[in-house]
Amino acid sequence: KNKIKIEGENVTYYKNREEIISKGDTIIHVNNEYVIHANDIIYSKKENIIWSENLASLEDNFENKFIAENFTFLVLDKIFKSKKINLLDSEKNNYSFNESMVNIKTNEIIGKDIKINFRNDFFGNSENEPRLKGNYASSNKEETIIKNGIFTTCKKNNKCPPWKLKAKNIIHEKAKKNIYYNNATLKIYDIPIFY
Fold this sequence. Notes:
Elements: E1 4-14, E2 19-30, E3 34-44, E4 49-60, E5 65-74, E6 79-88, E7 94-103, E8 108-117, E9 131-139, E10 143-152, E11 163-173, E12 178-188, E13 191-194
Antiparallel strand pairs: 1-2, 2-3, 3-4, 4-5, 5-6, 6-7, 7-8, 8-9, 9-10, 10-11, 11-12, 12-13
């Protein structure tokens, strides 16, 4: 009915509680579009929730891979929630979110405290180490929107980066590989140069 298929090493169905418990390695297929790999899951059919306190991965048909800690999957709403999610997208960029959720219906991820480490050559120069972080983000296939964000391509070190752009709103258009800034300040060695 919900287009969910669960495969596991040791699966028990408790009819009186309407609960399925899978111990050990478990694979959950959702709509033939997403695959969740987890250990020790509980599926409450009454509440239409699947959860696990262990590490899990969620893979989609677009070659994106999410790694989550302590996840909850809302079956009817097709929402995958976790306290921490790391996403390796199809372009090999690494996203890290706190308290986030993935909406499988709309292919969106929303979370707070985002950090993005782009592939070094993502903006055309393999010597760079481009990264973007912010307080809040929403991301879909076309764009990522960051609130109160900071972007730089400088190599990582223990000091402040030589330059960075800080903005109230940052929009990253994925296909065009463009980043737009609203209310931005350019800082060079933490000194504001341009607003």
